[in-house]
Amino acid sequence: MRVSWITKDEARATVEYGTSAGVYDSSVTGTTSSYKYVLYKSGQIHEAVIGPLKPDTVYYYRCSSDPSREFNLKTPPAQFPIKFAHISRSDYDMLLLPGDLSYADFYQPLWDSFGRLVEPLASQRPWMVTQGNHEIEKIPVVHSKSFTSYNARWRMPFEESGSTSNLYYSFDVAGVHVIMLGSYTDFGPDSDQYRWLQEDLGKVDRARTPWVVVLIHAPWYNTNTAHQGEKESVDMKAAMEDLLYQARVDIVFAGHVHAYERFTRVYDGKADDCGPVHITIGDGGNREGLATKEASFGYGQFEVVNETHAQWTWHRNDNDESVVADSVWLTSLSSNPICKH
């Protein structure tokens, strides 16, 4: 598991950890980097990969040998059940976030304040993210490179899945194969991302990972008024939807549209029992023109109970109270006889 943290001054990129508070019987030293963005210069960005770790276990750790700050994290289980969340305070094993993290939008100190804001939660559970349009931060002539801050601060395990880019990758956890795709990098049939996705889906062993989940930022299915007709939705769907359908992907989560919306199983614009369920869960963050449908703040939880059944629940935040507003039980496509090739 990769631990990342930032210090203002130079410090060792060392994480000390163990299964008892204050007792660190293991340690690892990683790497340190920084980046510049126009006139801004980041702090010292440290990262270190700790482990191997035991599943479903609480570890205590400290960074850069700082005796004043001890954190703890709980590792995901090795087998079902497992609970994923999209923006939740507690009661989950792993958080999945389909892009648009800090909304820094070129103003780099907001990346720092965002890090401080999420630290109490992100330090306790694995956060697996992909990028959105607000992470691009490309300025013609002034700063010609995209995703500078995102790639420097949120390094995901892309090399481990054979990807050449931090913008798309995959991983296995407790019987679920999770694929993070990049809506804002090349996705056409001649692109590296397309070829990587094709190879990655071809390697999936449904006996070992009976569930396959995909995250994108720009939704392929969207009946809201916001973000209609964008190429990141329309063209990416045209290029990649058949790959996901043929691989019997179970569910596709998207963000971008600041509302909640769930579709039935669908493929090529029509209901299809062997297509993925598409869910837009873009209502967890910035108030940026909340759209129609369920245009309230909320969060979702996806609990995979076993090889065949999982429950998706969407909670509306009504006056700071969590209210279940949508819930559905899903059956894995790998267990559906009519969907077997």
Automatic annotation (TrEMBL):
This is Purple acid phosphatase. It is an enzyme of class 3 (hydrolase). Belongs to the metallophosphoesterase superfamily. Purple acid phosphatase family. Residues 275-325 form the Purple acid phosphatase C-terminal domain. It catalyses: a phosphate monoester + H2O = an alcohol + phosphate. Its EC number is 3.1.3.2. It comes from the Eukaryota. It comes from Punica granatum (Pomegranate). GO terms for molecular function: acid phosphatase activity; metal ion binding. Keywords: Glycoprotein, Hydrolase, Iron, Signal, Zinc. Pfam families: Metallophos, Metallophos_C, Pur_ac_phosph_N. Residues 1-75 form the Purple acid phosphatase N-terminal domain. Residues 86-260 form the Calcineurin-like phosphoesterase domain. Its cofactor is Zn(2+); Fe cation. InterPro entries: Calcineurin-like_PHP, Metallo-depent_PP-like, MPP_PAP, PAPs-like, PAPs_C, PAPs_N, Purple_acid_Pase-like_N. The keyword Glycoprotein applies. CDD domains: MPP_PAPs.
